[in-house]
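## Example pair
The file below holds two records. Each record gives the amino-acid sequence first, followed by its structure token line.
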Amino acid sequence: MIDRHYPELKDRDNPYLALYEAVCERQAALIARWLHIGFIHGVMNTDNMTISGETIDFGPCAFMDEYHPGTVFSSIDQGGRYAYANQPGIGQWNLARLGETLLPLFDADAEKAVELANSVIQQYGERFQIHWLRGMREKIGLSTVEDGDLDLIQSLLAAMQAQPGRPYPRLPPPFRRRRSRRWRGTVPLGFPGTGWGARMACPLARPPDP
């Protein structure tokens, strides 16, 4: 497994723990990309996730047209376990099960092995957030990193959920082109009362001086 997918880890002090870290990182990045494009896998069982970090076995998958975090397409997922917004958490749960199977390889001491596994899986949420936020900045055209980016993006998503009819996989339709220091080419329209108007009025959002 390491030789095929992660040969760079062979010389690590603890190659199996490094493998677990690498798999968690790839899955965090992969699921973040799913969310960026509105992809819903539909059957995120543990056997439908790969060590290599690729998307497989997505029979009932679909792309949501309008943003709603509870969107489900699989007819067998009546409880919404694999809903759009649940996918990051399901990914973490699946990775925790993987970690359990690898415990004997992490350390001969059972308690130490559990401690090592927990130290990796507990970082998953943070790693996912980094990948998701970076991709969402790209998606809506934010060219710089600012402290308020997460709140800004969440306000847009909340507005899209409250005002159905705006396509999520491709955000450009609710936006228009505009030169800006802060915005790399898109400015949202039609979302009053969300804080976007104030951002557009701030100096960073105004077109640069000729």
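Second record, same layout:
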Amino acid sequence: MKIPTNNGEEFREVLPLHPGYFVSNQGRIWSEKTKKFLALSPLTNERRENQREVESYYYGVALRHNSGQKRYKIHTLVGRYFLPDYEEGLCILHNREDLPYPEINYLSNLRVGTRRDNNRDMYEKGRRKRTYYYNIQGKRYETLIDIQETYRYTKSRVLHRVLSDNYPDWVRIPV
């Protein structure tokens, strides 16, 4: 198999679900079946109540699998197959979000983080705005994840306490 490469580009097969597809450390996807690079498309932003609408820098691709297909964010594929400290359940974060496509998805612009790291990153970079902070037993928490990690509670248990009148020292306060 000969894949045309750019300078310093390396490819790895997207296994086990998608044999025959290869992802590069520069965010390109090669199909062995068609012998072509797949067209990547910008992902649309869904407007959420607690998130301002921003121009998407996420690019995605649909990879066929048996009779169906699955969509992936390009930076997630690059991170999963090239970042050595990636483990299942972790997030792939961008170091800089002001880079143009395709550099935004280069391996050199990606890092591994936890869900908590990802949430903090979204707030710090303005992709999500805070609508609440939480005062739990006299201590301020910025996110539900902070409370979950401190008390080792599930998200539903934290929300139950915050929204219930039975726990007056668990308060959600609008920003």
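Notes on the second record: The chain has two domains: 11-124, 132-174. The CA atoms of residues 2 and 115 lie 37 Å apart.
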